[in-house]
Amino acid sequence: MSDTQWQAPGINSKAELLAQATIMLDEMVERYEMYADQMEVANNPEATKLFIWLTEKQSQRSAIVKQLSAGLKLPHIKPWNYNWDDAVNLQTQDNHVAHYLMQPYQVLALAIHVEESAITFFNDVATETADPEVTRIAIEIAKDAHVFADVLKKKQRQYPEPEPGWDDDPDPPLVQE
Amino acid sequence: MATIPQTGIKPSISIAILGSGGSGVMTTGSLLLDVAGRAGWYGMMTRSAGPQIRGGEAAALLRLSPQPTETHKDHFDVLLALDWLNADRFVSEVDLNAQSLVIGDEGKVMPGAIAGLSGNHFELPLSGTAKSIKGGRINMVALGALAAMIGLTLEDVIKVLTQSLQRKGPEAINASISGIQAGSHIVDSLPALPTIGAAQATGRNRWSITGNEATGLGAIRGGIRFVAAYPITPATEVLEWMAPTLQKVGGVLVQAEDELASINHLIGSSFGGTPSMTATSGPGLSLMTESIGLAVASETPLVIVDVMRGGPSTGIPTKSEQSDLNIALYGLHGDAPHLVVAPNSVGDCVFTTQWATHLAETLQTACIMLSDQFMGQTRAIIDRPADIAFVSGGRQLASKPDVYFRYAVNDSGISPMSLPGTPDGQYTGDGLEHSPSGTPSSRADDHIQQLDKRKRKLDQFNYGDHWALTEGSGEMAVITWGSSTGAVQEALATLRAQGQEVRLVSLRLLSPIQPERLQRALQGVRRILVVEQCHGAQFYHYLRAFYQLPGVVKSMAIPGPLMIKPSDIYHELQSWESV
Amino acid sequence: MMETATSCTPMKPKDYKSGVKPVWCPGCGDFSVLMALTKALAEMRLAAEQVALISGIGCSSRLPAYLNVYGFHSVHGRALPVATGLKIARPDLTVLAAGGDGDGFSIGGNHFMHSCRRNVDITYIVMDNQVYGMTKGQASPTTDPDWDHSKLTPGGTKVNPYYPLVIALASGANFIARASSSDPNGAAKVIVDAIRHPGFSFVHILSPCITFRPEQRDWKKMVRPAPVEATSNPVTAAHRLMTDDNFFLGTLYKGNRPPYQPDLTPVIDDLSSIEKDFEL
Ligand SMILES: Cc1ncc(C[n+]2csc(CCOP(=O)(O)OP(=O)(O)O)c2C)c(N)n1
Ligand code: SF4
User: Fold this and answer.
1) B207, B254, B271 ranked by CB distance to C280: nearest
2) What's the predicted TM-score (pTM) here?
3) What chains are in contact with C, requiring at least 3 Cβ pairs below 8 Å?
């Protein structure tokens, strides 16, 4: 749980909404990148490839939001004031879920979870706000997330669900330093 | 006991002043040294004391001479005791011969152990005279007596006294002056002391300084502006002198919680760009070794002064020994080339500490300087140590790096350092083996490259003539280091006066080794005596391990707490020569 | 809640990353601490070259190399003395120290106490996972007495754990806070406050070791914001910290002791007056 309590997103201007969206998407890019690095270091090429792919996709989607923001002065939001629940905040939900032996199916599950949380978030924004412009854009972003979630789900079906014991490692962790 | 022949050696007079707590032995000794200095003599004073914190028996041991002197001779010409309580514990340190004057307070019984050493016993009314003066003190009477015996003028004594007692007010000064005057009148009945020639050096700029103060000064001259340390005998006076001095020059001394902290404080401050030093003794050095290795691996310049005392363990904290050589040379784990240097006299502490700083900064590594209790705590009257300026060198800084590699491999092995605050120079210093950029690496090629680089920068550096003190010629040589040098020099002076040429090589640079230089210094030598104050002959074994020594080599390794005497060395060489 | 800045943030958290890829186990709490730290630095808009991060040895102590600030990866237990020396010599820098619970409370325990006491203006971040990660999962000073997963302590340590926040307060730390790697944004706030607060600031971050203490994933469910504001009263703070269950987050104590920082302005510019003292 964040020390900033979850509250209904009271977003009331286009700039504010786009600021939120930009941060969320940027953070996801950064985090997918981080996961890609982690998997690369842990010699898990399949997961690495998928996270790189997610990084690229996510960057493209950030670009769209950035286009929408062109010419607007977006407010600065401090990290501890981010207006979202930790369900969306991947790092809190899933940072510990990352595993060096994780399989593509799990990578995609992680990403699907992100998108579904985003859909909930932006739909909530759309209903709560008084600004019709904000509603319009929020729905648009939610839709985009929906489309992407479907892509992810489709992709996930190409991979088998991991068997129990997928994380067994006959070797002990390495002692260092 | 055989003594060194007087011919040729330094004419000097040696005085031992004994007394127990509260009698003011040390003050008497210091004042006497100062007065002699003013009068144009050179001289030195060491101290010896019982184990008590207060009230213990103490001895001030002085030697005065028209020539610079930094070692005690074989025997004391005068032993004056303010009282005899526990005085016999100094028997091994205060050698007397048949001519020595042994002077006690009237009516007090001299311990048999001392009485047996010399037949020249005298009594002076020391306490009686002191009692007859209002506020009179026995040590002032003794000061007056001793000054008169060695021919110092009352005027000089009073001048020095007035200056040093300034804080105590006119009443105390007057009482002391009366005591001194009275003391000067009670010595008429004593036999004359041997003449040592007139004091001559009045016109020269001379200093009264201890080795520990000299070390502090050398550090300040060298640019040290950060000291962190934990108090330890006999290094504490380096710190006591430096703390207020650093404040004046814009530096700071931090008293750390322990030596683990102090050595790491230095790593931090030096990483930040400030030349940094600590002073400690054997036990502290032992605690520091892990992080000295860190300084070597991370190429962080620092200076560690070890004022050696008797070891192992807590050992003999108040006495000298040259037995930390091994830990200084080999105490770091892994292959950790670093600098080890040693001053060879009180005055040389100034130069060698300054040099140590210069080397550490230039070569970006740890430099251990081995001083010792004897040198550190001896107060000597010396000619002002020359100002030295190293024309090149110092810490090489990275300027405006494009892509900065902290541990870039190059010919000199010295990679420019980027100081925090420099844009685009960010890096992470590391004690883990690393690649040139500083990223941890366990790859064989990185390890070999960095090992080579850290060794190369030390091996290739030109240490010039400073590597050793060399004197004399001939087929016989003495190799020594540190504070044993003084005794060796005195022994050699006697031999030379007798027509026997002998060479001296006193190593100032102990690591990295300088085999070619030593080989040159020993060209034509057929017999070598290796002199050190150490039971385990660490220096001898070190020489044997790393140097080709010509001819026959003998080891003279004598542990502390007693200092090696010039006569011991003289006889060793003389008997060898006559074989 | 929301600050309207006149311009976009000139620094991004990413600008503070070095590009060196961490060797930590995927899922390790320390990744979030790295994230929190970069966010904090970005929020403060500190120039990367003005910041130095000093660490000891351990998984968590690998942190400096992953940041684009000046770093020093020292030896086990000595992060604080290195940081102290640096800050005293270079008060112009923002100096941070970081490491694990073994590094900070066991081998470096004495330095922890004395650094609190000395109150130099540095921020010390301890990533507490109640285990020695780097050396394969031995008990640390904060491990519960009945944790019996280490071969070195069969049946558990049977020794009570150490309470770092209480020790910090008793030793004189000027700022005491707890954060959790499950909330990097909250941790970022605590770090910003810690850096801004003068004197020695101690930030205790619960940072699970998913390899040797996988059950610590549940910490996420146990942490909660402290129900009260930070106090500047050490007596109140002592009471709170003594009754703390190790899962309250936020700034718990903010003292007002002046930091230790000697004046480094020279008062003389040549050594002749010093040397004069030696002249006869
Ligand atoms: C002097 C010394 N002793 C022991 C070690 C081995 N060692 C390395 S890290 C470590 C413990 C690390 O635990 P912690 O500080 O809690 O960090 P973590 O790995 O859990 O992040 C130990 C014992 C060492 N490097 N140096
Ligand atoms: S062993 Fe534990 S502390 Fe170390 S990197 Fe892995 S998860 Fe983190």
Assistant:
1) B207
2) 0.95
3) A, B
